[in-house]
Amino acid sequence: MSSSYIIRLFREKRGLGILIIFIVIMFLFDAINKLFFTPESLSDILLVATQDGIIAIFVTLLLIGGEFDLSVGEVFVFSGMIFGYALPTLGPYLALLLALVISAIIGLGNGLITTYLRVPSFITTLGTSFLLEGLIFVTTGGFEISVSLSRVPFWYYLSGRLPYGFNMWIAWFIIFAVLSYILLEHTRFGNHIFATGGSQNAAYAVGVNTRLTKIILFIFSSTIAGLVGIMSLLYYTTISPVEGQDLPLIVLAIAVIGGSSLFGGVGSVEGTVFSALTIGAIYVGLVLAGVPSYYYYSFVGALLVSIAIVNEKLLRRKVQT
Amino acid sequence: MTVDYINNEKQKGKPLLVADHLYKYYGDFPAVNDVSFRIDYGEIIGLVGDNGAGKSTLLKLLAGYHKPDKGSLYFKGEKVNFKSPYDARISGIEIVYQDLALISTMPIYRNIYLSFEKKKGIFLDKKRMKQESEKFLKSLGIKVDPDKLAGELSGGQRQLVAIARALMFNASLILLDEPTSALSVYEANEVLNFVKRVINETYKDNASAIIVSHNIYHVYSIATRILVMDQGKLVLDVKRGDMGPTEMEEYIVKITRERAVH
User: Fold this and answer.
1) Which of A28, A41, A45, B240 is the most exposed place for a label (fewest CB within 10 A)?
2) Tens digit of pLDDT for each residue in B111-136?
3) What's the gap in Å between the CA of B130 and the closest CA on chain A?
4) Which CATH architecture has domain B3-102+170-181+193-261?
């Protein structure tokens, strides 16, 4: 009785497991190094958690809707590149608009090809990613893109520094997390995301516009990736053409560690938020523990596989089709 | 034997649905081939035929899941042209699929209200959906917790909940695609009697149902009329009393054999 109750609790509240892991990891790293609970290292955790986390939230929505987006990394760089190049001629506002519109159009393209031409999104977005990567290298010649903040009046709102090393990304992370939580859990569209990912045909059969649902989610993930690319460019004042290469898989890992299922229909915004924080904590904690930074990837990989095993085996729902 | 709904003297009264020379092709293959019939209020139609006879495709045409390549549909006296299942549901046609009934990963109450969600402003009114689906399920004698995931239900419960959903929104025509094929004999009887009771008592004959089955004996007991399909064509349209189930089965075997000879 009590063990089945606990399994049920973890199954229903997908964010709970990762919240516990986050807390354990925080105490673990604190025990290893007393510098861990300082504002400086917390701000470092958030720097990692928020950049990847904002994108991961929207990739989570897409994953719940039953699709992947492997192009978010290259859209991130491409959008930053367009903003950087358009800034001198178009000015900051039009450059921002142009970069976001192009990011949205890339998402629309991914959505249309996946839903109407029935190409698996894994292939569609992988192709988009390679296409953009090629365009980025042809255009930049492999060099970094940089901006001068004096030309961008709104830079502070997107990426301004706050006291103790914190920055505005925290505010955006919270805003996007709250908005997407409400969207997913408390609106008709959110209900249709769960339905579309749970069973596309069954959802369509009772009247859900499953294609439109997916297309909107593709536009979301792509536009947000573009926005975060610009935010990153404004924070570091440069963006490198190779910066987006790991991003789609890290973001996917965050979503899965947060309890999303690769088969669709299952996942939560809060799970992804705690997962992003956990990934940030691991990154900073390992650095502070004096561990070579390459172990970060091994650590995340081990966590990913462990969580996947637990989710698919222990918490597996009795699903009949 | 061709069936012409206009010249069929047996069928009188106001039609609920008229299918007029419907065609649906999969590539060059006519899955539904020149099918015409009418349905009146209060009828329970058994739609019977072998696997691949076109029964499910015909049902999907009526439910807006597929669009007919040729032919017209009239529902409650008006010509209808459903662009999606949503259009059909808005008009009052509900369908229960054998395999697409419910979404396993979602709670029962959210399955029931899917695409007809209750809202408070722009937000979902989960409390009301939960309460009303619990009340409705109880009124039909279905004892399940609406908060449970659909994936946790037994096969029979799933069918009952899916049928309950079809009844919840005042449908006039309820389409059931092989509702009994995955069920035990006991569960199958329960489901079929449930449908009959609801059409006759709850709806007071203001609705009709079409029940698809590959086994004539499954539907014969509750049907008022039987339609038989073979190779996309409607080959038989009789009232229950006019032909016994054994006779009907022999007839189906006969036309299948004739086809094999030719």
Assistant:
1) A28
2) 999 999 999 999 999 999 999 999 99
3) 14
4) 3-Layer(aba) Sandwich (3.40)
